[in-house]
Amino acid sequence: MSPLVPETHRVSAPALTLTTLVWGRPQDPAVVLLHGNGGHALWWESLAAYLVPGWRLVVPHLRGHGRSEWAEPPRYRLSDFAEDTLAVMDALAPGRVPVVGHSMGGRVALWLAATRSDRVRALGMLDSRLDLIDARFAERHRGRVAGKRRGRHYATREEAVAAFRFVPEEPGVDPAVVRRLAEEAVHETESGAWTFRFDRGVLSLEGDEAGDLHRFLPALGCPTFVGAGETSWVLGAAHRERIGREVPHADVAVFPGGHHFLLRCPERVGPALRAFLDALDGTR
User: Which CATH number fits domain 7-278: 2.60.40.420, 3.40.50.1820, 3.40.190.10, 2.60.40.1080?
Assistant: First the structure.
């Protein structure tokens, strides 16, 4: 099998089963990649060609997302995502490995780096907001779906694929990539309708209940990479500067695009992430 065609693994976490994709050769060092809220594992597919061979990419669909199971009852705290990720690491990436996350996935990665430094060799956060969730923001953006776990149903697969959107919007992504992500994001229900593979229970008004994660930054000792989109409001200049002050050893890079810049310019993000990983001591 080509290293750019992922293997699919089913990993039993303490509360549910996670579907996990693995790109790369068994003999290469592992890096764990975590997608953001509402995404799925294929968010990282565009970067695979820049990291493989040389690295083995271990990429779970997080609970409630993609092809992984939903939590019953809904339970989507940051500590739950972290516990699941540790189960994936135990099964497919043992030892101390780099963990890189986009958006919410970056919050999970930071949580692990701060609380399980024995497992996290290096940390990558791509456009991850670390603040406590704002109640007014949550009500404005999540209030209409609070308490509703399933999204809208569509009569056909094409209608569902056409309804796919980036949140926030991200102009300039290759249409073939958008199509690929959309096709993976939808599935047919038992009734024959089509809907998205996403538990809206993730969109709690309370957020992930982890609080303000800036508290972890001053004690971070592992190599750290921070990526941001230059037009993103999620990790704007003020937030980047704060991270730079609190983690002076961090490599902070700004890329063209917004929150989903890794999809818009993988040809820039991939080599930058590869350079960060390849520079880690003791991995080559």
Answer: 3.40.50.1820
Cα distances (angstroms) measured from residue 125 to each of 39, 164, 229: 16, 25, 12
DSSP for 245-279, written as a single string: HHSTT-EEEEESSSTTHHHH-HHHHHHHHHHHHHT
Residue ranges of domains in the chain? 7-278
**What burial class does residue 26 get, using C-beta atoms within 10 Å of its C-beta: 0-12 exposed, 13-18 middle, 19+ buried?**
exposed
Q: What is the pLDDT along the chain (284 residues), one digit of tens a residue?
A: 466 899 999 999 999 999 999 999 999 999 999 999 999 999 999 999 999 999 999 999 999 999 999 999 999 999 999 999 999 999 999 999 999 999 999 999 999 999 999 999 999 999 999 998 765 665 665 556 666 788 899 999 999 999 999 999 999 999 999 999 999 999 999 999 999 999 999 988 577 888 999 999 999 999 999 999 999 999 999 999 999 999 999 999 999 999 999 999 999 999 999 999 999 975 44
Predicted TM-score (pTM) of the model is: 0.95
CA 123, CA 255: separation in Å to the nearest integer?
A: 18
